[in-house]
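Can anyone check this?
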Amino acid sequence: MNKTFVFGHKNPDTDAVTAAITLSYLKNQLKENTVPMILGEINKETKYVLDYFNVKKPNFLNDVKLQIKDIRYKKEVFLNKKESIFTAYNYMMDNSVSTIPIVDDDGKLFGIVSMKDIAKDQLSENSTHLTTSYDNILETLKGKEVLRFDEEIKGNLLVASLRSTTFLEQMKLNKDDILIVGDRHSIIEYAINSGVKLIIVSKDGQIKDEHIQLAKKKKVNIIKTVTDTFNVAKKINLCNYVETITLTTNVFSFDENDTVNNFIDFANKTKFTNYPVINKKNECLGLLRLAEVNDKNKKKVILVDHNSIEQCVDGIEEAEILEIVDHHNIGSIGTSSPINFRNMPVGSSNTIIYQMYKERKIEIPKDIAGLMLSGIISDTLILMSPTTTDLDREAVKELSKIAKVNYSEYGLEMFKAGSSLEGMSMTDILYNDFKKFTVNNRKLGIGQIFTMDIDNLKNDLDEFVKMIDEICKNEDYSTLTLFVTDIIKNGSYIIYNSNSKDVVAHAFNLDKPEEFAYIDGCVSRKKQMLPNLYNELQK
């Protein structure tokens, strides 16, 4: 069963990361097959949380775009280069394909062969040489082994179509010849004495015992077949190794991790129908036909702590969203069919997930309780944010008991660990917890960072404004803000792009809207920062 990815938003915060883990655990307890993921590097606060409760950081999910491996292509449809052309033809017929990949003994892609290649080879006037195996000849001609001295057979093809006397007088045989003949004993004896590579006796012709004994001394291979001479001559070239007609240059193949969109674009340019599928080791996995791109198995996902396109993983439109658990306003993500959408006006996604545990009567382990607790007190600023509800307080009370921590003391240590700006660039600070929105076709960006190191940020104010202005210019933001939140004072300082002075002033009723103005009581992006800016931009 395919796994379902559970993940939060880009630039993940503690609530997003822990919600992915805690919801995934719940789903797996309910016999679903899920795995938590992250869409970006975790911040210092989240790292502190995971380390404190000894929980492994989820793996990074780059995108959920449809890949070749999500297409139901013809897996394990390929042939070894030492198989016969006859086998290749039948294999194509059995698998309803006109082209097959050819691999070497290590399973690596060697080339590709098509029905057209086989037809061209069989109609060639120069098809008088055979390079194949003894077994390939037996299989193709429905032959019977008489004498075998060589596993591989190479030589020039001859058919004993002349009168015996004429043949003996005019034809000179050597060790590189492969002779097709009926029960014409004089020619068989002559061929054996000449030490030919192989004698194929057609129509189940008789071979004298004395000739068999002579062939043993001369080490001449002999095969008998019930097929008549005409049809043996007609089919003999089908015994050749398929590698003898395989195209090995300009073979267009696709890695199983390539995206379907890239494949379609390329296929439309090259106009081919069939493409080998390989892995990173160049091992062939099968054959993909352009007609099969609609037979796909979309990646299945569950979203937590977000429900907007701007904040979601790349390629979400190509995935199948099974469920959303979020505590934000309804965003821009749409689905093609009904889903479970759990949206509640609480302070944290983990509060909703805590309710889901209770509803399903699933026991909460200590580490999972610790993660849920951390997500709630992170988003509610230790229950001091205006977004805090009674459900958040109830969850924190119960989860603290299970996790065996004093949530106030633990919360302060968590914020202290996360508020350190050591080693962070200005870009790191802006995007530490950043979300973008669209208002009347204009882009709004809101970054937020919690820190006790206010003075150092203020010292770099001019550089911050310069950087934000540059980002607005390059990425077409109408308004871009960074809120520096001081949880001790319970307020935030604001840095914004130069063109948004009036927007910021009106949004937060600032008499003096200078850079790094302090907004008392403003700590929640969801209930204060975003609504105020959103409403002002809508005007």
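Reply from J.R.: I decoded it. The mean pLDDT is 93.
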